[in-house]
Amino acid sequence: MQRLSTLCFTAALATLAAPAFAQTNDSDFRQCLNGLRPTAQANGVNETTYRAHTDTLQPMMSVIGNLDAQPEFKTPIWDYLTVLVDPQRVDEGAQRLQANTELLQRVQQRYGVDPATVVAVWGVESNYGQGFGKTPIVQSLATLSCFGRRQAYFRTEFYSALRLLQAGHFPPERLQGSWAGAFGHTQFMPSTYERLAVDFDGDGRADLIDSIPDALASTANFLQRAGWRNDLPWGFEVKLPEGMSVLGEGRRTKRPGTEWAARGVTRIDGTPVPPELSLGLLTPAGAKGPAFLVTRNFDAIYSYNAAESYGLAIAHLADRLRGGGPFVTPWPTDDLGLTRAERRELQTLLLARGHDIGEVDGLLGEKTRTAVRAEQTRLGWEANGRAGQKLLKALRGG
Ligand code: CA
């Protein structure tokens, strides 16, 4: 679906309000909405719906800042994975697997996607239903349709959101989600809802907000339609032979398992690469970090939210839910990232030192990063605002 990243902690990123331009924005916005009206109608949104949801709508300029601050592309992969696949998310996922065993079996029978994968998507997308996002998505999509650099994409989603309301799928006040318009347990964009949401609990309505069966089945339906094959793994960690070039390799460059084996690649435990699989090589931190061979199932996960780091988070969380361990090859860094529990500890330590970081919420927002920079300066370190294990240790030591 080529969705923009909308993971919940994005909301904590600082956004730039520009009060001086508010007036201009308001009139530009009004003009833009009037201009979109004919296209909205051509896309199935009737005049009554359009007026009901846009007549008094204000632009939400805070979302524009998020557009250029997507964590998958700015955050080191080891920070990203540490927070998305932390012990808390693994434990809660195991509980969700247990609590929904029968449902997940039926989902697997129907769509051919295994329970751990479905639950991993759920865990990464909404923290198992505990964080849907609180942004009114018609307002954010309308703003993104009129300002910023992806207007054509967001207009499609804006019209789609209006069609959802017009069809009565959701009351307007329930249509809240991420700043970029994804909503519900598994954070579908409105157009994805229209294409792929399913009613799995049989009440006649595909409800990704208030029905876990509908949400999980819709995710499995998405993955199946994206090419998921029940008889394939997503991939696995591998060991590369010393000095092997990874230049030009990637997720899309699939080669037979036999070819990887001939190059000296093995599974991380030294066993052979399955010869029958078609596999691409993923080295998210370069040849010196963990390496993976991935199948078309990885591509299916990738299509949920176009970022390889995201795909790896889902795939790895699913492995952990099946009882697998952490990656064997260490990340090429001497300062690993923080879990959510460690982020909360860091924030508590920053508060104790008198920094105004607001609430201890485990989200490293702008206030926390400002405090981190101050501490880095005090320690004589580069003040880059990134918090890792080294800083946590330094603050623990007083
Ligand atoms: Ca339903």
UniProtKB/TrEMBL annotation:
Q: Where is the signal peptide?
A: 1-22
Keywords carried by this UniProt record: Signal
Any one of the GO BP annotations: peptidoglycan catabolic process
Entry-linked Gene3D superfamilies: 1.10.530.10, Bacterial muramidase, PGBD-like superfamily/PGBD
Q: Which SUPFAM superfamilies match?
A: Lysozyme-like (SSF53955), PGBD-like (SSF47090)
**What range(s) does the Transglycosylase SLT domain occupy?**
29-319
Q: Where is the Peptidoglycan binding-like domain?
A: 340-395
Gene Ontology molecular function, alphabetical: peptidoglycan lytic transglycosylase activity
**Pfam families linked:** PG_binding_1, SLT_2
Would you say which domain of life the source belongs to? Bacteria
**Record NCBIfam families:** MltB_2
* Name of this chain's protein: Lytic murein transglycosylase
